[in-house]
Design a protein that fits this description.
about 130 residues; mainly alpha; Non-ribosomal Peptide Synthetase Peptidyl Carrier Protein, Chain A; about 75% helix; about 5% strand
Length: about 130
């Protein structure tokens, strides 16, 4: 049972997934700060006047919970696209290239049978011929 678990853990897909999750999580924090500090102010500057940016106020003007913030949705979409692009180009593309190289290396022409195998095959054929005669 432990051997099967070890094989499962060491399978390429599980290790690749673990690396992608760790790297994606760490990089996600960097991208989130980038979006909050640089992208959000730019998106908010294109919105309506004031500091609230793109959005619609529903109901009372003083209630923060009734503001529909389109800028936050746009920022989250930009955040997702940046993280997805980095994970793809840093992790997925190199792993695909590595798998292609491995496949090319594994496809070899079958080796010629060993001398002892050829001798045993010849003996087998001779014995069949003697038994049929």
């Amino acid at each position: 049972m432990i051997k099967g678990f070890r094989e499962f853990i060491m399978r390429g897909n599980v290790v690749d997934l673990a690396v992608a999750v760790v790297i994606g999580g760490a990089f996600g924090a960097i991208v989130t700060k980038f979006v909050e500090s640089i992208v959000n102010p730019i998106v908010a500057s294109f919105g309506g006047g004031g500091e609230i940016g793109w959005g619609i106020q529903l109901g009372d003007k003083g209630v923060k919970e009734t503001f529909v913030d389109f800028g936050a949705v746009i920022s989250a979409a930009i955040n997702f696209v940046i993280i997805a692009a980095v994970v793809y180009f840093i992790l997925v593309v190199p792993m695909n290239k590595l798998q292609e190289r491995r496949k090319k290396g594994l496809v070899e022409e079958p080796a010629a049978p060993a001398e002892d195998v050829l001798l045993l095959t010849e003996i087998r054929d001779l014995l069949r011929a003697q038994n049929n005669a």
